[in-house]
Amino acid sequence: MTAAETFPVKTAAPAEVTVAVSQLLIGRALQFPMHDAQGLLLLAEGSVITPEFKRLLEARQVATVQVGAEDAEAFHRGYAEAAQPKGPVQPTRDPRASQQMQDVINRWVSAGANRGVALRQRIARHGLTDYSKDLATEVRQQNLRNTASLTMMMNQVQTGRLAQVSSSTFAAVQSSMKLLIADSDGVMAQRITGCPDSTLACHCLRMSQLAMAMATEMELNADNVQKIGITALLHDWGMIRVPETIRHSETPPQRWERLELERHVAYSADLFEKIEGLPTMVPLISYQVHEKLNGTGYPRRKMEPNIHLFARILHVADDYVTLTTPMAWRPAVMPYAAITGMLQQVHGRAADPTVLRALLRVLSLFPIGSAVQLSDGSEAVVIRSNGDRYTKPIVRRTTDADGKTIPETSPDAILNLADSDLEIRSVLETPGEEELRYIPDPSVIYRADTHSAAVPTPKWLASARSRQPAKKEADR
Question: What is the CATH number for 142?
Fold first, then answer.
């Protein structure tokens, strides 16, 4: 027996290829070892890619790894196959988990759902008056504090510190509710400051305030409005576990990147299981935010009867905020273009028409803050919505028909178009803003677009089969 027969000589490993961590296929066994960018061994050959391994890499902010060429080809081929249109593939169903979600909805409805006085009765109405400068200042300062608090909490969550999340989110929602009651239009008019508009904290806060304003218009009571606001603040926190290379990509997300983005709903739901003091419905509502009434949403392709009302409200708020927020790869969509584009969803039954009507009541067809030209050639800014008169908001004229500036303090500056022969002729570009006048590609911008079972069942649902529902859960 030769030395070679006793100690077989291993052939040299092939040249390694760089692969994004997000492309690693769970369940795939490696043919060759895997290394990081510095050459450190991560997995030996024959090892299987597990969800825990991917989460570990993401937690360490490892965006790419080095693998053998054959492994890299398998990973790329797997995602290419996933990107091919194969018709509507239904996600793997867990009937017991689905039933538990439906039970929560049924208990909420059967328990009275919305007992008590509607918050709308407490909302101050300001008619033909502009915003109070003091209130505008308070809104901006409060938004600054809330975005800073949310950003800090998100950073703490990544290190497992969850103790203050519940109380801090309650406080943020309470402060926003107070301002909405004082002047809902004034809150909608103020841009959220303190962080770039594209950051997660700003997205969640904008969505929370808009969703609460919509819920108020839908005659929900203060407790339910608060639950909607809390869910909006928290629902996207699972995005923290999505690689930053995908979240902040400077190009439109590819098919496999959208699949990674969609997983955030399960990450969020699992996170909520660890946070004490949250209303019981928050995980369910968060999990359904991206569902569509016609069954084309994610993660479970639920249809109209099986999607919680709060999730329907948040779905519309999320779409509007996403569209009107600039991304690294596109400017923000003009608010008017966003509204008109979303109204087209009514024909396909993607969004709840009752909720869209509430959005119009809050913002009008020409959203608050929009610069417009009136039929006499004068220009104005929309300062208040006008109930069901969506096309006739209250405006503050900035120039007359001859182009002369109208002072803000002029008695003729503010005009209720519902009581005037004038109407809005066109929407103008927002001064100093780069905005798109159209929605370039709904299949890219709307994140609720999937034909794949990409989202795992969250732990709180998977473990629910061994737990009994909490007593009077619907009332919490």
Answer: 1.10.3210.10
